[in-house]
Design a protein that fits this description.
Helix content is about 75%, strand content about 0%. The chain is mainly alpha-helical. It is elongated, with a radius of gyration of 21 Å.
């Protein structure tokens, strides 16, 4: 049975380029799985460690959460009416909420790694430069958004403008005048936090693929080194 599984995995790992196919066929099932899981865990841990800290969002222009589009468009008018301070407070609160929520992603991401299938392994190794990130997105997107939302709400509810926004959007949504993802501050921030997490995982994945030996992991170096 084990020999059959090895044949299936090696066959799945074959890439169109002949040189890739020869190299990947040298991997055992155990090595392929171990290398992929190590890379998945390293990417997830690195992303969380960068985002789930003070100013992890606010000081990173790639992931900093801006005002919802409706508030952004109304910003000039709101500023003229003396609301500038409250807009700034909301931006800070949203980003702080995201920083607070992101560490909660770790168990969900690691659980996804544990359940990686032969098909998942094939897709990761034969996919593009962000196939690790695509794996996480497919497996965890909905769960992470659900997990983040209560924590985000607990932080953003303390800001008066957030409550006023939610009240107005509740009415606007009934008329179809607002995107569902911006219907509440917490849904907006949770969605942005999840996307930011994938953005950072993608960055880590690219680093691993560009310099697998530099990760300090022998098994990552062995598996991803064959893909260079």
């Amino acid at each position: 049975m084990k020999s059959m599984q090895s044949v299936v995995l090696v066959s799945a790992l074959m890439l169109p380029a002949f040189s890739y196919a020869v190299d990947l066929s040298q991997l055992s099932t155990k090595d392929a799985n171990s290398g992929l899981k190590a890379a998945l865990e390293q990417g997830a841990n690195a992303a969380i460690s960068k985002l789930g800290v003070a100013d992890g969002f606010l000081n990173n222009e790639k992931v900093k959460i801006p005002l919802p589009s409706i508030l952004e468009k109304a910003k000039p008018i709101l500023k003229l009416s003396g609301q500038s301070k409250y807009l700034d407070e909301l931006v800070v609160a949203m980003n702080r909420a995201a920083e607070t929520a992101v560490p909660m992603a770790k168990p969900l991401l690691l659980d996804a790694v544990k359940t990686m299938s032969v098909t998942d392994a094939k897709n990761i190794l034969s996919g593009g430069e962000t196939s690790v990130t695509d794996f996480f997105r497919q497996k965890t997107s909905v769960a992470l958004t659900t997990k983040f939302t209560p924590t985000v709400k607990g932080v953003t509810d303390k800001v008066g403008l957030a409550s006023r926004y939610n009240s107005v959007m509740a009415k606007a949504q009934k008329m179809g005048a607002v995107p569902e993802k911006e219907a509440t501050v917490e849904s907006y921030v949770s969605g942005k936090a999840v996307e930011a997490l994938y953005t950072m995982i993608a960055e880590e994945e690219k680093k691993i693929r560009q310099d697998p030996i530099g990760t300090g992991s022998k098994i990552i170096g062995k598996v991803f080194g064959l893909l260079k």
